[in-house]
């Protein structure tokens, strides 16, 4: 399969943003077809329907390999195809100078276990790689002498930068991991997947419980509204869609699967305002006490 050649959009605005995002994910998919062992072989697409990779010999073999070897063993040259994709599509110097929004990325300090938040002026290629570094697949990313893994382990996402540094009270959380998954996982991969989901969601749940507690104190008149900000929490997600996907689908970068996820995300985002727009600026559209206490 020929490598995808990205096109650069020189204009600004929503249409250009959609084009740029399309080009980025198209390049991710094309690169994965060349570099990733987590993929279906050509004939498997015809033999096996669905988006999982459980029946793929490449996936099974790689999964077994990752159980006994670390990225320091099987990737001695620290090859990371995402690095090249990001370099082709993102002008980090321009982003640092002219980003019109408050932008934050989170990473986990490997040695201290603490959260590192990269603010707008600090967002660079290494910061993005650090925020997406799964330790079983990639070496820890070194920045200023410190090593980092994916920020989801301690902040998924971290909401405190939005509370302290942004004027708005509304926070919309987009869920990509289901919080509730019915049934007990029984295979090794299902168990590992659920452990990751629970650990990645736990930091978010802790923060939302704290926000709920402060909100209750404010509403009960026990805290001064002029001194504490009452946050209004909203969420977009579909546990039904995400729980229907198998564990192995998380490694699937096939273009048809990425298009499926895009369609599902657009559907959820389009339906959300009709049900929740009136709550923006007025109240939480999520019952924090019911969901997280």
How is this structure best described in words?
The protein is an alpha+beta fold. Helices cover 46% and strands 9% of the residues. It is built from 12 helices and 6 strands. The chain has a 4-stranded antiparallel β-sheet, covered by helices on one side. Helix 1 (14-35) packs antiparallel against helix 5. It starts with 13 loop residues before the first helix and ends with a helix. The model is unreliable at 1-5 (pLDDT under 50).
Write the layout of secondary structure elements.
Elements: H1 14-35, H2 44-47, H3 57-68, H4 71-74, H5 81-89, H6 92-98, E1 105-109, E2 115-118, H7 125-131, E3 141-143, E4 146-150, H8 160-165, E5 170-174, H9 188-219, E6 232-236, H10 239-243, H11 255-276, H12 288-292
Parallel strand pairs: 5-6
Antiparallel strand pairs: 1-2, 1-4, 3-4
Helix pairs in contact: 1-5
Radius of gyration: 21 Å
* Helix/strand order: HHHHHHEEHEEHEHEHHH
Structural class: alpha+beta
* Uncertain residue segments: 1-5
The main sheet orders its strands as 2-1-4-3
Largest sheet, described in full? 4 strands, antiparallel
**End-to-end separation:** 50 Å
Percent strand equals: 5-15%
Care to count the β-strands?
Answer: 6
User: What is the count of helical runs?
Assistant: 12
What fraction, in percent, of the residue positions are helical? Answer: 40-55%
Q: Can you tell me the overall shape?
A: globular
Overall average residue pLDDT: 87
